[in-house]
Amino acid sequence: MNCIDDVLAGHAQELRRGSVVLACLSVLREPRYGYALLDLLKEAGIEVDGNTLYPLLRRLERQGLLTSAWNTDDARPRKYYSVSPSGERVRERLAAEWAALDGSIRALLKEKGA
């Protein structure tokens, strides 16, 4: 990779980092376990590594934005995450921020002919 590719990769990673929080809060309106969440995000075109996702889920839970419960009914216990009422409010606000920012960026891109 050349210098420009390295710079682009770094900026693209920064863009994805913030959007993963909104994606998780959106998808976890229904309880899901981590691996299923990874697959669902991947299907949606959001590539997230497990080493990134699991610490994020724990952080969102500590912040009170997610709740979790273990399901031990199956042979393999799984921890299911879902959005808390506080997480739902944060999701709504982040979605509004995202929409406003997206509109602004689209207008700037159109203005500059990009």
Can you tag this structure with a few keywords?
114 residues; 12% strand; 3 strands; Arc Repressor Mutant, subunit A; globular; alpha+beta
The assigned structural class equals alpha+beta
Shape label: globular
Number of continuous helical runs: 4
- Beta content: 5-15%
The rounded Rg comes to 17 Å
The helical percent reads 55-70%
> Could you give me the name of the CATH homologous superfamily?
Winged helix-like DNA-binding domain superfamily/Winged helix DNA-binding domain
- Largest sheet at a glance? 3 strands, antiparallel
Total domains: 1
The name of the CATH topology is Arc Repressor Mutant, subunit A
Mean of residue pLDDT?
92
Q: Which regions have little confidence, pLDDT < 50, spanning 5+ residues?
A: none
How do the strands line up in the largest sheet?
1-3-2
N-to-C order of helices and strands: HEHHEEH
Task: Give the CATH class.
Answer: Mainly Alpha
